[in-house]
Design goal:
Largest sheet: 2 strands, parallel
Structural class: mainly alpha
Number of domains: 1
Order of helices and strands: EHEH
Strand content: 5-15%
Number of strands: 2
Strand order of the largest sheet: 1-2
């Protein structure tokens, strides 16, 4: 059995969901759509920027 959560949850909600999944059902299989949502962005970053993260440039005001 596995649990699939929303990407809209906050960290504390993920923690509680994981504890329930592990304690109540006995499974470590927990995933969210956050990983799948960002996979297309990462593919685009790698293709355009040859890096798997967005570039960040800090400028002085």
């Amino acid at each position: 059995m596995a649990f699939y959560g929303s990407g809209q949850l906050i960290t504390e909600d993920y923690y509680v969901l994981h504890k329930l999944a592990k304690g109540l059902v006995g499974t470590n299989n927990l995933d969210t759509n956050s990983r799948l949502c960002m996979s297309s962005a990462v593919a685009g970053y790698k293709q355009m920027l040859i890096a798997d993260a967005p570039s960040l440039q800090l400028r002085k005001p």
